[in-house]
Here is the input.
Amino acid sequence: MADQYAQSREHDRPMEIPAIRWEEPPEGPVVVLLDQTRLPAEEVELVCTDASTLVEAIRTLAVRGAPVLGIAGAYGVALAAVRGFDVEDAARALAGARPTAVNLAVGVRRAQAAYRGALSDGGDQRAAGEAALAAARALHGEDARASARMAVHGLALLDELLPGGGHRILTHCNTGALVSGGEGTAFAVALAAHRVGQLRRLWVDETRPLLQGARLTAYEAARNGMAYTLLTDNAAGSLFAAGEVDAVLVGADRIAADGSVANKVGTYPLAVLARYHHVPFIVVAPVTTVDPDTPDGASIEVEQRPGHEVTELTAPQVPVAGMESGGGIPVAPLGTQAYNPAFDVTPPELVTAIVTEEGVVSPVTAEALAELCDRSRQVTIQSMG
Here is the structure.
């Protein structure tokens, strides 16, 4: 079951509504999401009382972005455990809701392991639910701290690659607070540059067909007072040709063991443009996005989205005069087939650097990524010891 309620907010200050949170009202625990399908027109929160509602929110992109999907997956398992639902069924449904984003399954497995561990240690259902919730909360906190560290590492890298400041950064899709327990991944780096007076311009790709750049990144940039300009995806080439882009900063939904990066469709063409124009192409993502079990880019399962997202201009969820909420205006002949992958894959040789909370990998190689992941695991074990 789900409920929605609107929050009236001003749009000239940093976002105060978190992308996701756990709450415990008198009627029972819930997972509360900022419904990203309603932005920027309305800030509306979606209240999920069971895992199936959360799965639907994930599939419909009410909540999206690799790091926050991991948090959502963990909270979903905890929700099922605390409310007494079938945890194993909930975990399977959650992990399969978006196949490309590896963080989702990572978060699910982490809370699931805590739940199972509590039961195997002799705990009852209540104790197991508390263990799952503790794991989800820990992941949420870790992601916030990882976001802050990525911003520091990313800003240092920009200053190294582009001495003198005044960075003109091109980004794609949305990688800010809406996708994170903190201030984001790639967007957090741009925000850090803005705060120290080093951001001259944030170029925001609109990100067809669902316009996550236009609706979400522009929304976050405006609220943070950043100098930004929105452009159609196919205008990026002219920006490069005019020498108006100093660096490209993007996030990732999965990074294969060889350094191949799956990110929102449209990322790969930017990497090609950046290489041709000798512009750094930088991926910013937490270590949890690196999947050592996926050997290369060809092994990444790319989610295919419905064709109507391309053949129709979809109305926002907020009712529009003369159109039903959720309807669409056809922009192609009836029956037109559409190719609509949610992601594309950028090979490692086109990636200048991968910025994580544990440091920067450059050049991007399988060996360097493996070393980074090993170092991250050692840090995690030490912090738990």
